[in-house]
From TrEMBL:
<feature type="transmembrane region" description="Helical">
    <location>
        <begin position="277"/>
        <end position="297"/>
    </location>
</feature>
<feature type="domain" description="RCK N-terminal">
    <location>
        <begin position="413"/>
        <end position="530"/>
    </location>
</feature>
<dbReference type="GO" id="GO:0006813">
    <property type="term" value="P:potassium ion transport"/>
</dbReference>
<feature type="transmembrane region" description="Helical">
    <location>
        <begin position="232"/>
        <end position="265"/>
    </location>
</feature>
<dbReference type="InterPro" id="IPR038770">
    <property type="entry name" value="Na+/solute_symporter_sf"/>
</dbReference>
<keyword id="KW-0630">Potassium</keyword>
<protein>
    <submittedName>
        <fullName>Sodium:proton exchanger</fullName>
    </submittedName>
</protein>
<dbReference type="GO" id="GO:0015297">
    <property type="term" value="F:antiporter activity"/>
</dbReference>
<feature type="transmembrane region" description="Helical">
    <location>
        <begin position="309"/>
        <end position="330"/>
    </location>
</feature>
<keyword id="KW-0406">Ion transport</keyword>
<dbReference type="InterPro" id="IPR036291">
    <property type="entry name" value="NAD(P)-bd_dom_sf"/>
</dbReference>
<feature type="transmembrane region" description="Helical">
    <location>
        <begin position="130"/>
        <end position="152"/>
    </location>
</feature>
<dbReference type="GO" id="GO:1902600">
    <property type="term" value="P:proton transmembrane transport"/>
</dbReference>
<dbReference type="GO" id="GO:0016020">
    <property type="term" value="C:membrane"/>
</dbReference>
<keyword id="KW-0472">Membrane</keyword>
<dbReference type="Pfam" id="PF00999">
    <property type="entry name" value="Na_H_Exchanger"/>
</dbReference>
<keyword id="KW-0633">Potassium transport</keyword>
Amino acid sequence: MVSETETSLIGDALVVLGAAGIVIPAFARFRLPPVIGFILVGLLVGPSGLGSLTGDYPWLRHVTIGSAEEIALFAELGIVLLLFSIGLELSFRRLWQLRKLVFGIGAAELGLGGLILGTALLLLGDLSPAAAYGLGIALALSSTALVLPIAGTKSAVGKSAFSMLLFEDLALVPIIFILAALSPTASGDSAELLLTTLWQGVVVVAGLAIGGWFLLPKIFAQAARAKDPELFLAASLLVVIVAALATAAVGLSPIVGALLAGLMIAETEYHEEVEAITAPFKGLALGVFLISVGMGLNLKTIAALWPQLIGAVVGVVVVKAVVTAALLRFSGVVRRGTAAEVGLLMASPSETTLIVLATALQAQLISRDTAEFWQLVTAIGLTITPLLARVGHDIARRIELRTGDAQSEETPEGRTVIVGFGRVGHTVAELLREHGRPYVAVDADIDTVAAARRDGFAVRFADVARSGSLDKLGIENAKAIVLTMDDPVQQLRMTRQLRQKYPELPIISRARDADHAAALYQAGASDAVPETLESSLQLAEAVLIDLGVAMGPVIASIHDVRAKMRQDIMTKGKLDHEPRIRRTRRHATGSDS
């Protein structure tokens, strides 16, 4: 017979899974971040939402969750799986490259942020120094569970955020032990217990790393031979659970074990298969955690204390954003726009803030009312994290546009002008930069411009569809102009205008096919490159070689196809010469070479 407890757990699981099935597609349809949706669902089905009405309407028990503690295990497992998936995207080599950011900027961000917040709490509140600085450190922590899914780990923003978050996760255990040692009822064994935990943690992490190095390839090799995806999934979950339990057993956070498990699998040749199989769990794991955050929002308390709560949230966000952005900027690690974006992204408190608050309460450093107030501040901060990320992105974009426009005015003469900075324009600029040729690129998408500038490319914002926009680029002194836009009508119009105004300017244009190339030549292009031609020829070449055809006949066939294409373009474009890149080079260099 199924017990009432088991029925409750099954019901809670159904509520969580049902929420995920509704929130993810619904918010994706309206292009909204599902983070807010999950938090709102937690608020709706939680104890301060519909859950508070179960006494009057018993049937609501089937679609609500009575308390956040009931899904605490699900939420913790969700964070563990999320950190595991993040570890899969990394490597030990990359972590070693980030060591200065982790132990330099990461330590400074946590220490300085905690110091400023603690001092403010000490001056403004009725708290002891231990309680004030304990709260300061707790609030200085940032959310790994929210920040990394938003920023990733490979971009400039994600790289900086991940480095600081990694240090915070490593520092969590010492923070908890120090707070316990500051308790009025603490014994003198706290320092010894901390040292014991640290050396045991080092041994466990080293043991997991060494064991994973030798055992994981063999485990996943057996799963690969069985050709059973379920076996891959079972092996992956086994590894992450064992690693999380091992670190938790010695007092470390299970988050550390989950991240380590992901890193160990990432070093094997099976990491792509594991990443693909476990990918669906990533969004669900984040959703479970966010639902628990929403359940922590008590609407009655928020309504009663909203002025104080707003003041506290704003104060924490401002302090953390300024400290993080200033450290990144003055250290010279990232550009100004990136520093501002990371600062706002990291400005909210963290899910680990709740753990530290619980420790401080248990150590009798703070009262229950104080703990509940800052738990609400933390939950509200987590809720607005996606909004802060959006604001930070917009601010970074404006900063990059403003600073980039000033820099682009100093671009030397004799440059190549690239119109459009998509896939093709990016490749052209990368090769020009590699060979030391000056260039400037323009694009009408400000997000593309900002992202390219963060990567060090000379890109300006300009809508070439507007009359006179190209005149500001100094085309009269340019050596060539490259048109890479994906708009054939606009390319033809711009080619005609440029040829009329600059008769000797080499105009190299991307073309869709032979017909488009012929039209571009008629409009005055020096050279038009059909993008479908080369990709088709490379694909055909690969197929023929894999089928065993000799290289000589394959190359001859490709030359024949190119000759037919040139002849087709000549006929359609009414040209008196074969279209050749060499002709463009003669214009650009002034020589026949």
